[in-house]
Structure formats: structure tokens, C-alpha cells
Amino acid sequence: MFSIPVEPILVFVIVLLRVMFFFGFMPIFGEAFLALRFRLLLSTSVAFVFAPLLIQTHLIQIPQTISGLMVLLLPEALLGMAFGLVARLVYAAFQFAGQIIGEQIGFGMAQMMDPSQTGQLPVLAQLMYLFGLLLLFTTNGHYVFFSALAHSFDQAPPGFIGYSTGLHDFFTARAANMFLYAVQLSLPIVAVVFVTNAAMAMVAKAVPQINVFMESFPIRIFTGFLLLMAILGLMARFMLWMLAGMGKDLEEVLRIMTK
User: What Cα–Cα distance (Å) separates residue 253 from each residue in 70, 88, 180, 247?
Assistant: First the structure.
């Protein structure tokens, strides 16, 4: 009698679920401008690579009930989502830093369509986001995520993943760091614009006839962009340091979620 092997199909579904949530929350791969068909094809292709290796190296106990199946599948989705959120928080810091800079130099009302978020985003926030992606791919930083994903199937195979309160504490700390890093990235320009505004205030006090409010816009824009060009190399170093820290964060997530 012809029979369909259940274990290989279940292993493939488990791997596919982890990979799908991984790509779904990653920058670039999880953006709305990428067609859903492409993301499904990419996730399926990666799952076809990992599933046979998992079948050969790990024995997975097949659950006999729907509740047991859900207990097996939900941690897989949570682990993939956690991996993607590690990168999301870093790039959210880049975008927030760009938004702060834009507000300070007078680009607060300058918005552009962001295809990744299907909404409008400040111009400099989008610029910082794209600059961060450029740094990621030019330094092969995306290999860190693929390596962590491959390593996760060995260190945390299906059935050996669980939720821990440490995961909540981890992402709470990383969310706080997101705001801290965004302020640190934008602080030099914020400081210079503050000094510029103070100087313009003294000019307005000395010469009331000058419309300082209107004259300050081109001065702030020129000063802001001049300083941005001057410190872009230092900002790139700091952003690379943030990107390098994602490898340790992925290892920490894996350690927290491994039973």
C-alpha cells in the first residue's frame, strides 16, 4: 500500500515556518515592496536546503494532537521573528537618527514615499536607512544572519525551543538602546544646530529688523549638510559597530530560547 511519509513533510513545514518568519521580519527581505511570491519562493528554497540536513541529524517526535502540533510550531515562528527583530531594531535606530537630524536642520516637512513601509518617511530617515543597508551588504554583514539561521537548526532543533521571560527583557533592553544609539548618531548635528540657533537669536536681538526666522532655514540646512558630510565617516564607523553587535545579539536570542 502506498503511504506518505509524515516526518519529512513535518520537518519541512517546521523549517519553512522558521525561515518564513525570519525573512518576514528582516530588513530588505521583509519589506512590502518585495512581492509576496518572491518571499515565498525564497523561503521555500532555503527550507529545501535545511530540511534534509535536519532529517539526517535530528529525530523529531511527531505530535499526535493539534495542540501538540501548535506547541511544536509556535516556538519556530517566534524564533524566526526574534532573529528578524534584532536587525529591525538596529535599522529603526538609523531611521530615527535621520528623522532627528531632518527635524533639526529644517527638513521636518520634507517627506518621501517609503516603499518598504508603504507610507511617508522623512528624507534623511530614508537616507540613513539606505546607508545602513549599503554598509550591511558591502561588509557581508548579511552572512551573519544566514549563518545564525543555519546554526539555529543545530543548536535549537524543533522541539527544543521555548519561550522565556529573558526574551522579553532582552528586547526591552534593545529597544531602549535603539533610542540611545539614535540620539548618539544625531547628537553632533543637533549640537551644531543648537549653537547656530543661539547665534541667530543673538543676531535677532541685536538687529530686530532682520527676519531671523526665514533667514535661519538656509543657514541651518547648509550647516547641517556640511557637518553631515564631514562626520559621515565617523557615523559609518559607529553604524558598523552597531551592525557588528547583531551577531552577539543573535547568539543571545538563541541561548535564551534554547531549552
Answer: 21, 14, 21, 10
